[in-house]
Amino acid sequence: MNVKGTVNRVELIGWLGGEPTQRFLPSGVGVCDFSVATKRFGSKDEQGEQTFDTEWTTIEAWNGLGDICQDRLHKGSRVRVVGSLHTRSWEDKESGQRRSKTVVRADEVLFLDAYGNDE
Predict the structure, then answer these.
(1) Can you provide one Gene Ontology molecular function annotated for this UniProt record (predicted)?
(2) How far is it, in rounded angstroms, from Cα 56 to Cα 40?
(3) Which pTM does this prediction carry?
(4) FRET partner for 65 with CA separation of 20 to 30 A, picked from 25, 33, 54, 78?
């Protein structure tokens, strides 16, 4: 979506690093959270070989999409996620410091594993 000359769009293809978790807001809205691992080029090692770094991204899938993700995804699932960046901030209750976290709020999740293939 283009809003006044800007674009906030993320597309990732990767693997789930753990089991998805579902939480419910006081309003009753469900949110499914999961982390997706993607690879990117890193530096070269001592022998000149290319290394790869793993990037972990937290995904939030809301409402019905979240329900489907909770039912279908598991650790190791391969997915394509399209969404937008969302940053929330809060005050840490223990330290009083301001904290923030940026996540991808999913608009689309494509399951890249064969359906019913729970190996």
Answers:
(1) DNA binding
(2) 11
(3) 0.83
(4) 54
C-alpha radius of gyration, the chain, whole number: 17
First to last CA, the chain: 37
Domain residue ranges in the chain:
11-41+50-84
Tell me which residue of 73, 75, 8 sits closest to 37, measured CA to CA. Answer: 75
Short-list 30, 32, 33, 94, CA closest to 58 = 33
For the residues of 8-54, what is the DSSP string, one character each? --EEEEEEESS--EEEE-TTS-EEEEEEEEEEEEEEE-TTS-EEEEE
73-95 tens-digit pLDDT = 999 999 999 999 999 999 988 99
